Amino acid sequence: MRVDDVARLDLGTFVRPAEETGTGSPRVEAVFGYVARTPAGVLLLDTGLGEADAETEAWYRPHRILVDDALRKLSLTRDDVDLIVNCHLHFDHIGGNPSFAGTPIHCQRTELEVAQTTDYTVPKLVDFAGATYELLDGETELAPGVHVIPTPGHVDGHQSVVLECDDGSIVLAGQAHDTASAWSADALAARAAGLGHEPPLPLPSPWMARLLEFDPRRVVFAHDAAVWMP
Q1: In sequence order, what are the residues at sequence separation of 6 or more whose Cβ sits closer than 8 angstroms to the Cβ of residue 121?
Q2: Which pLDDT tens digit goes with each residue over 77-110?
Q3: Which ranges of the chain does DSSP label H, i.e. alpha helix?
Q4: Which residues share a beta bridge with 133?
Q5: Which residues does residue 50 pair with via DSSP β-bridges, in sequence order?
Q6: Most buried pick, 46, 73, 104, 212, via CB within 10 A?
Q7: Which residues on neighbouring strands pair with residue 134, listed in sequence order?
């Protein structure tokens, strides 16, 4: 597998209200998944926008692209997918999960507990017939070169995927950062002292150094089409 073999799935858009953007204006945001043939099998990160309650639908005004349709553009079907990794269990990342009954869904144990016991997400997208969870307790290597790394921040149970490829590594960051520019700022914060800068310096995310150990050639995101490269 090569870095460029990891394919993006366009799974739709939603409108983030002005109350959440911090800019005073609403913002249209994309929803992306990613698929890759890995030593663990065909891996799918996230499955798109689920249907939520009427209040959430009116708040975010989603436009959905079904995961089946997105996979078809890559000449794949849901039957080709061997495992799913959800970066977290908010409704805009797990919408297609019920279509994958029996397919292992890898998530952090703490994330599933929160999703099942609090008003956190859409219950029918979590506890559906045939839901098959593989629960992780921290960093896990699913197969040689297929790493799941906890990246809490957006939510406590957030996780990202690192794929070690023949030509380097790629980080499927999910929503560890909303944008490539936010990742870039965090990566520079982690390197600041090594670049010769004196305190005071920004504090990087506590897991940033671990991801940078893989010397990523690409980093891709759930809500940003931009790709970070070193």
Answers
A1: 89, 90, 91, 94, 115
A2: 999 999 999 999 999 999 999 999 999 999 999 9
A3: 18-21, 54-60, 67-72, 109-117, 123-126, 180-191, 208-212
A4: 105
A5: none
A6: 46
A7: 106
How confident is the model at residue 70, as a pLDDT? 98
Q: Please give the Cα distance from 127 to 95 (Å, whole number).
A: 12
Q: Residue ranges of the chain with pLDDT lower than 50?
A: none
Dmax (CA) of the chain? 55
Beta bridge pairs of residue 193? none
Return d(Cα 25, Cα 44) in angstroms, integer. Answer: 33
Question: Per the confidence metrics, is the pTM higher than 0.70?
Answer: yes
CB atoms within 10 A of CB 106: 20
**What is the rounded (10 degree) CA torsion for 190, 191, 196, 199?**
-10
* Alpha-carbon dihedral 198, 203, 207, 211, rounded to 10 degrees: -50
Unique residue bearing structure tokens 């219950």:
123
- CATH for the stretch 3-174: 3.60.15.10
